[in-house]
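Researcher: For the record, we're logging two predictions in this thread. I'll number them. Prediction 1 follows.
Model: Prediction 1, sequence and structure:
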Amino acid sequence: MIFIPGCAGFIGFSTTRALLEQGKTCVGIDNLNQYYDVKMKQKRLSILKGYKNFIFYEADVENFDVLKLIFQMHKFDSIINLAARAGVRYSMQNPFVYLSTNTLGTLNLFELAKRFGVEKVVLASTSSLYAGESLPFREDYCVNKPLSVYAASKKAMEAIAYSYYQLYGIDVTMLRYFTVYGPYGRPDMSIFRFIKWIYEEEPVIIFGDGSQSRDFTYIDDAVDATIKGLKKVGCEAFNVGANTSYSLNYIISLIEQNLGKKAKIVHKEFHKADVLATRADFSKINSMLDFTPKVTIEEGIKRLCDWYVENASFLKDISTKEQDR
């Protein structure tokens, strides 16, 4: 039985669904916060509730007493912690929730894993730790200079994980995801926004000139890496990316091709918490977990655009704004 905090989030939902399809029993929790449009989370959750091997509790990782009750009711073999406050920019406006959810929530889970004998934890970390480092990013970089409270909270999560591994032998896989996108993705993230704005013929807002580049990871690849992360490794961090980097301008051109519409671009000032480029060295995760990304950016954008068009009636009412202010 697998415990999945954050099961209504993007990666959480996709990973939970994949495990349910494999016949695994999953217990999921989510607080359904309104950082982005909660209708997307409710939609994901409605899909998961269609599986008989899925159990859900509306709960928060910050609430130790509620978590303890759940651990008392179920015997977990492993935890995949995908509950987190996401978003670099918003962490500058409301830093407190990042420390309470990402850091305290992680501490709660490790403490309960220790008390209830859970031997394996998979932890969602981030490529944002690498700000200022040279490309491609490698896991052995020191990453001691986070540019945002979001990144700092993730660094703290990794430190907590390492301490519980050293003290209590809890096996930990820490996954540093690189810009995950795909169906049922976060509506506040760039690719979803670009598709929605171009499809609805609204202005496309770009911070900077669009030359900044990212190592984009299609959701199926992220899920594959997450599930492979259940393997016993000791305590290790892994990049989840493709060792590729594409500019926002190129992404927009792919979306234009797939939707058959032209973007109306509006440029705004580049955000100081952003980085100019990301690219993952994934040789470590390839060697230790046998993970290789399979979906190219061209194929991934095509799949996502096709999905968006098929679900346009639902997605037209999904807001791209960060809502929890």
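Researcher: Logged. Prediction 2.
Model: Prediction 2, sequence and structure:
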Amino acid sequence: MMRSLFSGVSGLQNHQTRMDVVGNNIANVNTTGFKRNRVNFQDMIYQQLQGAAKPTEDLGGVNPKEVGLGMSVASIDTIHTQGSLQTTGVGTDLAIQGTGFFVLKQGEKSFYTRAGAFGLDQEGLLVNPANGMRVQGWQARTIGGEQVLDVSRDTENLVIPVGSKDAARATTSVDFACNLDKRTPIVPNAPSPAEISHGTWGTEMKIYDTFGLEHILRVEFLRNWGFNADGEPLANLNNRWTATVTVDPESAQPTNTEVGMVGQVPAATNTFTVIFNNNGTLQSIEDINGAVTNGEGPVVMNVAFDVLSAAPEIDGGMIRQEFALNLGTAGGLVNSITQYAESSSTKAIIQDGYTMGYLENFKIDQSGVITGVYSNGTNRTLGQVAMASFSNQGGLEKGGDNVFLVSNNSGYANIGPSGIAGKGKIIAGTLEMSNVDLSEQFVDMIVTQRGFQANSRTIQTADQLLQEILTLKR
């Protein structure tokens, strides 16, 4: 008689636990990155009234007689299914599509979360603004003038220094690609190089010195016979153009622009000859002294010019700056200067210098790479958000504040970039919603309520039976 009472009590207690879990799921239906829980029941130990008997020659076998002693909670599982993604438009909001967790730190203690509602604090640290935990990743390092990410290192706090400076960079390379019209008439009685002021076609672009000051690079082309070392015109070759390079041509103070072959000191002239093949592609270049490139590989001419120094008492107030003028590849069509019977035009002119700028904005791609956007038009890799995965993510412990903790059965955190070793991808400007399905929870609530009611009826009925026994003596 008492067994039914205690079985009913166990049913009440554990259905109440299930109801607690259902209530918590419903309460967190709009909690970012929340993963719902599920309660599984199991029956408890059994009291054996009679053991089993095996068959004999005269009788068959007898099954055991057992009375159950109620039920208990077998497990409360965390269901790590994907939640729906909600677009927020906030650049620091991150969501994970697939497996994985963001890594947060408070001091030296690590936490893991799917809730990516992050922001920046006053020091530029990427944090969870709700609790101040710092998002972990890898900060970019400057190696050889380039921003490099080394994801083999331990993770660290991510800093996005909005408003920080990006130092000016002098132009070291100018990529020049254009077409020179084959139909351009050859200039008769071509003047000497010193007298060439305007060619049949030319272009200008901005370049920069070490201070970030802007200069104008002008390259002009004149289709003529060319000149030898004595300044005498060469034979009439249809595939030769004289190029004249000038930096700040309108400046009152001359910049003393000079050009020369790679590996040589620039000559005391700003002209050189561009030579094309009969098929219209670039063949070589020739300096004023008659030196010609070998006609293979990149075709490059060094350019040097004077820049006003910050210290006028040094070097007469001028410093010398050089850059490479890349005309393309011998025989090449892509990003190379050509000579076809089409209008002379500029296809692409690219230079690598820029003035000083400030970090104005940043963006995060699907790999978690943070790219800074500066006011001078440059982009810099600032860092990369780390992700963690576990061999048994269901074994993680919930620690509140939307975070998980490592447990004895979760396995160690495998930390690395997104998209590697089974990790999902990061989507910026979105948040992962709770994976709670309200319809499922309401159905589960009804089932739990009915189970609780049924167990209460068991206790009530057992109490009535006991009351009947007590009244037998009356």
